[in-house]
Specification:
Strand order of the largest sheet: 2-1-11-5-6-8
Number of helices: 4
Distance between the termini: 27 Å
Keywords: Isomerase, Metal-binding
Number of domains: 1
Oligomer: single chain
Mean pLDDT: 96
GO molecular function, one term: isomerase activity
InterPro entries: Fumarylacetoacetase-like_C, Fumarylacetoacetase_C_sf
Protein name: 2-hydroxyhepta-2,4-diene-1,7-dioate isomerase
Number of strands: 14
Order of helices and strands: EHEEEEEEHHEEEHEEEE
CATH superfamily: Fumarylacetoacetase-like, C-terminal domain
CATH architecture: Alpha-Beta Complex
CATH topology: Fumarylacetoacetate hydrolase, domain 2
Amino acid sequence: MKIICIGRNYSEHAKELGNAIPDKPVIFMKPDTAVLKGNDFYIPEFSNDIHYELEVVVKISKGGKYIQKETAHKHYEEIGLGIDFTARDLQSDLKSKGLPWELAKGFDGSAVVGNFFKKENYNLESLNFSLLKNKDKVQDGNSKDMIFSIDDIIAFVSQYFTLRVGDLIFTGTPEGVGKVSENDILEAYLEDEKVLDIRVL
């Protein structure tokens, strides 16, 4: 199972981190060992600045290569929410040296994945999702603000990587990312339904 992630897919998030708005999807990956087991996230010892990034996650249900945008919708049946935990201090250091981000993005437990839901129950062109930290709303996103749609992403990614059943695509985070601290509680909502409840330790 591959975890393919899209960076800078919401213009306001790109701006808040001082990044240029991309003209094609920015891709990075996490290993399968990044998936968090359970609901407790432990801050790793190598970072003092772990950030949450809430994202819509797509689960591939039909594999393929060179998938066309017009048929991309046939390759997934379920969507959910996930959190891309990022060691921002480590990422900034790596970026300043022109090095890859994987150490800051792919560490154990850095990919929170909730339950998946049938996509036909939602309007994917205007999907609301939000994140609360200690009951305060910190991220409030809508899929209509994506620079690249889910179908755009699947078509682009499949030019380079063969997609297989069970692969996950994290589709990018809206503005409002921030640091987590010990004892924080993160709650994620898909429309009005709570789908994630994470404790930071």
